[in-house]
């Protein structure tokens, strides 16, 4: 589940010195209390100071607009490869650490702007493994987005506009996750404990089961699949969101979202 080669739960001496220098400067230059200079911390210190150092999504990276656009275009080119499957897409994201593609899904929600984390291949006990789990904090606390990637190019919708085999496979997976979470969500505390900073305790949202804080996403197909029988397809999409807290996305949505968060102050 660790995202990076570097272990951000530890800082070297140089990073500690620079971090302390910036923290000291936070105390100066104002009559109204401490100035928050989090963005000026060394990158490692930004990670280190968060709840999950090795799963933190660094907001400062969003300011590198050339990098974000480059990632989005690489992703679009990858999707154009013939016969590409979901495992190849997962490998592309994970091997290149292009996590911003998945993190862009926060665009659909009103949390993630105060704190944002990503866990890949997140286990639900010994029964299931989630492709990605996004954890974001908003004004109402932390919420959770469980994400399943499916095929980008096979049997996405049937001719009537109803869901085809690919989306239905993803929805069956999510139904299993939902049942598991209803019965066992509290057991995830042990998993989160292994990832958290040893200097912070888990907030209440991680140790109580509140289904309203859990959201689900299935990504499958391309924009063209959604446009074939647009009226029915988008009605099905709205119904899943309204009735089951499930977002049905296509891969071009992720490309669009990634471009939209470029230059933002937060997710």
Topology record:
Layout: H1 13-25, H2 43-48, H3 65-79, H4 86-95, H5 100-103, E1 115-124, E2 128-138, E3 141-149, H6 165-184, H7 189-195, E4 214-219, H8 223-227, H9 230-244, E5 246-249, H10 251-261
Parallel strand pairs: 3-4, 4-5
Antiparallel strand pairs: 1-2, 2-3
Helix pairs in contact: 3-10
Organism: Anaerobacillus isosaccharinicus
Protein name: DUF4263 domain-containing protein
InterPro entries: SduA_C
Main-sheet strand order equals: 1-2-3-4-5
Please indicate the percent range of residues in DSSP E strands (runs of 2 or more).
Answer: 5-15%
Distance between the termini: 20 Å
Mean pLDDT: 94
Helix content: 25-40%
Order of SSEs, N→C?
HHHHHEEEHHEHHEH
Number of strands: 5
Largest sheet: 5 strands, mixed
Radius of gyration: 20 Å
Low-confidence stretches: none
Domain Shedu protein SduA C-terminal: 85-255
Organism: Anaerobacillus isosaccharinicus
InterPro entries: SduA_C
Protein name: DUF4263 domain-containing protein
Key descriptive features of the protein:
267 residues, five-stranded mixed sheet, alpha/beta, 5 strands
Provide structural commentary.
The structure is a single chain. With 267 residues, this protein is α/β, with parallel strands linked by helices. 34% of the residues are buried. It has 2 domains: 49 residues, no CATH class; 211 residues, no CATH class. The mean pLDDT is 94. Helix 3 packs antiparallel against helix 10. Helix content is 40%, strand content 15%. A 5-stranded mixed sheet has the order 1-2-3-4-5. It is globular, with a radius of gyration of 20 Å. This is DUF4263 domain-containing protein. InterPro entries: SduA_C.
